[in-house]
Design a protein that fits this description.
Helix content is about 20%, strand content about 25%. By secondary structure, the chain is of the alpha/beta class. The chain folds into 5 domains: about 5-55; about 130-190, no CATH class; about 205-340, no CATH class; about 340-505 and about 535-545, no CATH class; about 550-715, no CATH class.
């Protein structure tokens, strides 16, 4: 157990000074004894503090929440799944802390619409909007008792009302639909007993002070909010206190923005735009005033912006300045839509322990985890901050930080380079690590920097290269970690006998870059190249393109690659997601946990593959090594042994039909085809850069949606536990819905 320095000597400090002086003369035997006793005292103190904290729902440990819920009469929904042997993340999904805390208050407010919306936030963590559909029925009203909140007749001149048709903010009148809203055969919304709860699964993620992308091939005055140059709809920064559309993470529509521009624009709101103005040889940023904006449709960039104005299209995330008057740089703050905390971004990340503490100087000592004061001297750590906005001890580029480390790396073999803003760093990085050295390049918390690799050398590749020179056999090189960075323009190249390479919360853009419609610019190019690397490669909570492995199959062991909670995107299911150039299979042992793989996989072995969606054919050389479990593998794949995978399970059901053995192969294939098609994973989008990227559609087969080992969904979004959240919410709605009503959860995105 590692204790803070002030707790090691808490008993020793109580000893009178005369005895401490004698103890010092004897070599501190008393101090060492009291330190051993202090460790046990700390154990008891922490246990007592934990027991006290567990009395309160706000501070209780996750495993205590179900017991507190039982005290107030809370019962988990049976359809959500079993709680026995559940992981902490699953416990939080099955027994939400906020719902347990509000159980008594919820029973007192049973039957109100406001309670239904609060239940969605407490139970599922989704923002919601409850709608009573009887208010939208087309009925004749008495002239003496008009209801202005009822549905109105459609006016073709009111475009905004028409755009809201069928959604949670629909205000038009509808004819009656006798089908029930909770029917499994066909839903009907507009009837007297029907109540719908619209929920939003996508979240609004911020981007702060990032440069906009200039679309020079169209016009130097044309920009996109996304730094990659793709169309990305702007999302509303939700403000629960405001209510309505401003309180939900929804895309901003043109007509909505034109009518309420001041509520979306400015500091602390959904987006803001700054432009550069040249003054006395320097570029100064200036916030564009509200009066200068014009909301326009910039679909084909044909709109001609008037002089002195700025055209904005929130549905595409585009800006257009007057032709011939481009600004000296554009910087934006905005929100984009996505499903989960992966791929890097301004969400809270689990930072490595070595970089948790801000040093006051470049040279400082930090105790390694698990070491006490009595251990050997801790390794010296070189720490360097990088940002485009200068400050004390802050450099302008990553290359400058690497050069600074070169001067002291003999004395300080462990280095951390932290990028403190969300700017773009156009650099060419070649990093050599020697034995015993460790380098971490990471983004600061709540930032998303971009490393853009350009074609600077005509006679050599321009990848982000990390390598170790080959020395004696069995003498591994250093360790490298890339954390929270988006890399575009070129791939990442790893070479030599490195000890370990970790890619955490990063995006290596599939296809190196994006066009306006989010199609990849170089779809056939890999994002990660591994060349004769003996070390372990780890990919965690990241989005990367295809992986190409160059290895010596005769003298070297297979390269070990571990991928978890990540997307491997070859830009097409028929392209190679994991493989080797000009070779049938990659000489690598690749493990997949909670992943979505868009493309084929050809590798030496798969030691473990679980809760993973393989959208392309899988081929391994060593089928007797490893196991695939609770995953989707396309028919015709060559894999290690499989356990409860799809479509194997539905195939087994069909093969158990009477008379199966009497059918011809063609007849058997005809019977298997419909079931295999039914369980094929369906996605909102498979193009990186779109809000619904790798999100399962609502009509996806339940065998996929609840096919993981803990009844969550297969794929990279497994840890969101959305099936359990939906089942819990549905059970609670039936319990707290108004009397004599039919209620259902409606997925808005």
């Amino acid at each position: 157990m590692t204790l803070p320095a002030e707790r090691w000597d808490q008993l020793y400090r109580l000893v009178p000074a005369i005895y401490r002086a004698r103890d010092e003369a004897e070599g501190y035997p008393l101090r060492d004894l009291l330190r051993v006793i202090s460790e046990q005292v700390v154990h008891v103190e922490d246990d007592l503090d934990g027991l006290y904290d567990n009395w309160f729902i706000e501070t209780a440990a996750d495993w205590v929440v179900p017991y507190l819920g039982d005290l107030v009469g809370y019962r988990p929904g049976s359809a959500a799944g079993e709680l026995a042997q559940a992981a902490p993340e699953q416990v939080r999904a099955l027994i939400p802390r906020r719902e347990v805390a509000d159980s008594v208050r919820a029973h007192r407010r049973k039957g109100t619409l406001a309670l239904l919306e609060e239940l969605a936030a407490d139970v599922a963590g989704w923002p919601a909007k409850a709608v009573e559909f009887y208010r939208l029925l087309a009925v004749f009203q008495h002239l003496n008792h008009l209801h202005h909140d009822r549905g109105v007749v459609a006016d073709l001149h009111e475009i905004e009302r028409l755009l809201r048709l069928g959604g949670p903010f629909d205000t038009l009148a509808h004819t009656v639909d006798v089908r029930r809203i909770n029917s499994t055969r066909g839903q009907g919304f507009y009837n007297i007993p029907e109540v719908g709860l619209f929920v939003w699964r996508l979240r609004a993620y911020p981007i702060t002070d990032a440069p906009a992308a200039c679309i020079e091939e169209v016009e130097p005055s044309c920009f996109t909010f996304s730094v990659l140059g793709n169309d990305a709809p702007l999302f509303t920064k939700p403000d629960p206190k405001t209510g309505g559309e401003l309180g939900l993470p929804i895309p901003i529509r043109r007509h909505m923005l034109a009518r309420r521009f001041r509520e979306y624009y400015g500091a602390g709101r959904s987006f803001r735009v700054e432009i550069g103005e040249r003054s006395r040889g320097r570029v100064r940023r200036k916030t564009v005033p509200v009066e200068d904006f014009i909301v326009a449709d910039l679909t084909d960039w044909s709109y001609r912006t008037p002089k002195g104005k700025v055209a904005i299209d929130p549905e595409l995330g585009r800006l257009a300045f007057p032709p011939g008057y481009p600004p000296h740089g554009v910087w934006v703050r905005y929100h984009y839509g996505f499903s989960s905390d992966i791929g890097g971004g301004e969400y809270p990340r689990r930072l490595s322990a070595i970089a948790q503490e801000e040093p006051e100087s470049a040279e400082h000592e930090q105790s390694a985890a698990g070491e006490s004061e009595q251990s050997s001297v801790a390794p010296k750590v070189f720490y360097q901050a990088v940002a485009k906005k200068r400050g004390p001890g802050v450099l302008d580029s990553i290359e400058d930080a690497l050069h600074a480390w070169d001067d002291v790396r003999d004395k300080q073999p462990v280095a951390v380079i932290e990028i403190r803003d969300s700017d773009v760093y156009v650099e060419q990085l070649t990093i050599e690590l020697r034995k015993g050295e460790s380098l971490t390049i990471r983004a600061a918390d709540r930032t998303r920097p971009v490393i853009y690799l350009l074609d600077k050398q005509r006679n050599a590749p321009d990848a982000l290269t990390v390598f170790t020179e080959r020395g004696e056999k069995g003498r591994p090189g250093g360790c490298f970690t890339l954390d929270g960075i988006l890399v575009a323009g070129r791939p990442m190249h790893v070479e030599g006998p490195l000890q370990r390479v970790e890619i955490r919360d990063c995006t290596l853009v599939p296809g190196w870059g994006l066009a306006g419609d989010c199609s990849p610019r170089r779809p056939a190019e890999p994002s990660l190249e591994i060349y004769l690397c003996d070390g372990r490669i780890s990919v965690l909570r990241s989005i990367i393109g295809s992986i190409q492995v160059y290895a010596d199959e005769v003298t070297a062991d297979p390269t070990v690659i571990e991928i978890a909670d990540s997307v491997i995107d070859a830009t097409d299911p028929e392209r190679e997601a994991v493989g080797a150039p000009n070779w049938p299979l990659a000489h690598a042992a690749v493990s997949f946990t909670d992943c979505t793989v868009i493309g084929t996989v050809g590798t030496h072995a798969i030691p473990i593959g679980q809760n993973t969606l393989f959208l392309g054919c899988v081929r391994v050389a060593r089928r007797q090594i490893g196991c695939l479990r609770y995953s989707y593998v396309p028919p015709g794949s060559r894999t290690p042994r499989r356990h409860r995978c799809q479509p194997d399970l539905v195939d087994a059901v069909v093969r158990d039909l009477p008379g199966w053995s009497d059918l011809t192969p063609a007849q058997q294939a005809e019977l298997l085809a419909p079931e295999r098609d039914r369980v094929r994973p369906l996605f909102t989008s498979l193009r990186y850069g779109t809000p619904g990227y790798v999100q399962l559609r609502t009509d996806c087969a339940p065998e996929i949606v609840r096919g993981a080992d803990d009844e969550s969904e297969m794929g990279v979004l497994h840890d969101l536990y959305q099936p359990q959240r939906l089942a819990n919410l549905t059970a609670r709605l039936e319990q707290f819905s108004p009397a004599h009503t039919d209620i259902a959860v409606l997925i808005a995105n």
